[in-house]
Structure to design on (158 residues):
């Protein structure tokens, strides 16, 4: 049995806060070749996950908020927001499933935020994500303004 307890969430959150990218995964699957990828995804408010989609190979992705608040945002192929949801377990809003071939991102709104993520495998860095050309690249000076704009457009309080 793999147990998810406060101590594990605290440790992965500590690692995320210390990471230059401000996020950290804790994998439950043993191999990247596993057909079902399962992980804790600790994300801090200063992290940026460039909008992307999973296609060729097609993959569905699911997020459950275990702690903290997470904005989940979907886009069309031109970068227009098509749907969004605030995951907040304290308010009974627990998870979101992103269909294959849909651009999306998540934004951590609280320190110590942790999601349980499930995604089809296998994982291969070369084709896992198709990044959106219309969004800033990770590390770009435009990231903070872009994220603030997304939250403003959705009405999700940062």
């Amino acid at each position: 049995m793999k147990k998810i307890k406060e101590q594990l969430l605290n440790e992965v959150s500590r690692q995320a806060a210390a990471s230059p990218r401000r996020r950290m995964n804790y994998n439950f699957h043993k191999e990247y070749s596993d057909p079902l990828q399962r992980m804790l995804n600790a994300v801090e408010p200063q992290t940026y996950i460039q909008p992307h989609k999973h296609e060729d190979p097609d993959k569905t992705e699911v997020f459950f908020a275990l702690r903290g608040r997470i904005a989940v945002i979907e886009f069309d192929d031109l970068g227009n927001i098509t749907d969004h949801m605030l995951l907040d377990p304290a308010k009974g809003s627990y998870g979101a499933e992103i269909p294959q071939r849909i651009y999306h991102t998540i934004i951590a709104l609280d320190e110590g935020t942790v999601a349980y993520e499930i995604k089809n495998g296998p994982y291969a860095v070369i084709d896992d994500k198709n990044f959106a050309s219309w969004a800033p690249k990770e590390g770009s000076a435009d990231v903070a303004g872009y994220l603030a704009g997304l939250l403003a457009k959705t009405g999700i309080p940062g």
